[in-house]
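[Q] Does anyone have a clean structure-token version of this?
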Amino acid sequence: MKQLIHNVLDMETEFHAGSPPAFPYPWAPAWGEDRYGLWMALDFKSVRTVFRWILPGMFWMGSLENENGRFDWEDRHRVTISHGFWLGETAVTQALWRAVRGDNPGYFKGDNLPVEQVSWDDVQAFIETLNRFHPALKTRLPWEAEWEYACRAGSETAFHFGDELHLEKVNYRGVWDFNDSNGWGKGARRSTAEVKSYPCNAWGLYEMHGNVWEWCADAWQEHLGKQPQVDPWRQDKLAGGAGRVIRGGSWFNFGRLVRSAHRSGFSPDGRNDLLGFRLALGH
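[A] Here you go.
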């Protein structure tokens, strides 16, 4: 076992300059590397959650003015993520929520379904409880910029897989916008799907588009501006703001709302069956 740990640490040292510090962590029972990069597992009361290491880097946040479905608050600007971080490869499941909090608020029931009907405030209580599991465990919500960076996984298209949307790749309403239909597209699920039901992106992250909206750490701000930014994180709610940022769209939403660049805000005490979250680790 000691040799295995040394081998992994040697692999990590040579992997890249953005390697996670003190890898592997004392609470992680399993870790490794695959075609998507480094991964690490957390087991809590027999429920496993896998995190993916996201390298530091730069990307274009927001959308081009000619992107189909664009809203004018999707300001395109250059963002630098200066530190690597871990991000859950899926949204938090109902199984993990129940293991941590002892209940299941989800409207659609199933251990492997993403938990929903959880407010931003509820998520903070969940994180506080989970982090008491081990002194070295420091889970949190991702910053909005981290979320979009991870969702894009190096892409600059409307979705991490390109510009064309398909029900085979995303759980959404099945129509692009209000003008297309007042109903649902043929074959639309009309409910949440189990995590890992759709193909992951190039960094091994599942359902970054659709399924459930995902809470971010940031306070909502309508316009982010077009100036370059480094590690942006808006911590405090602004006067007249809409609360906290949500990203990714959901099973209920039209296609234009599940694009990589689309952003919205919601009251931190709000709950519905469209709202879930995924965990980040790190600074």
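[Q] Thanks! Anything notable?
[A] The domain at 2-281 is CATH 3.90.1580.10 (paralog of FGE (formylglycine-generating enzyme)).
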